[in-house]
Design a protein that fits this description.
mainly alpha, MetI-like fold
Amino acid sequence: MIKSFSSMSIGIKFALVASALVLISFGALSLLMSMTDTESADLRTPLNVSFIGLDNYVRLFEDEQFVHALRNTGVFVLVGLPLTLAAGLAAAVALDRGIRRFRAVFRVGFYLPVITSIVAVAVVWKTLLEPRAGLVNLVLGWFGIDGPAWLADTRFALPVMIVMAVWRNLGTVMIIMLAGLQSVPQSLMEAAELDGAGAWQRFWRVTFPLLRPVSAITLLLGLVYTLKVFDIIWIMTKGGPTDSSTTFATWSYRFSFGNLLPQFGPGAAVGNLLIVMALLFGLLYIRIQRRQQS
């Protein structure tokens, strides 16, 4: 049972209030910076910056990169998130009921990409996707298919990033879902089997509804990750080619740190737009959850 704020200890109250103040302070600073013309030269003299109101936001909406970043971020969320959840759930079901031997080895294998350095992962994927000597195009060549330059082609750069993100994060979903599957009472499964329910009916009508709490957690974590995905894209393509894999996170970084003349005002504005998107998705998620519970 969740305690009310008044019944909490003084230490917990202090920690919660301090955390809230820190979050509010950083949010206020980001909002304030997005309404100024702050550049790298202004960091030593922050009081010399000019207040320009919503000009940075107007500039962003008029920039053609806004459409690319909005579309790519939306595609990453709407395609990458369901694929990650589905792949993680499939792996969890296989480990819980399908795979009997070397189960621990498979668990480690699925989870290894999560704990592996993103730089090492990027080197391996770049080697596999190398146009002339990469393993992927080599295998395609055995079947008479001329493989493309995956990371240099505007048609394939974003899909490759999505596949790579799914592969890297399905281990997290698998661990959470596996914990949920192992908490399902075996008596319910046996009762459903006695009633004549097949394997699919037992999963869909008994197991899956009981996985709603853990599904909610994985959905929320996956939503946060896919909205702010940065490391994979920046290391692999830096948002290219021609902004075909640029998201709001990479766009914000490019403004603030990715060029010779950093512009922190527009970078903060892009970051604030990303926060607004996260809040909108979060509110939609909460509304759907309340409808399902009612």
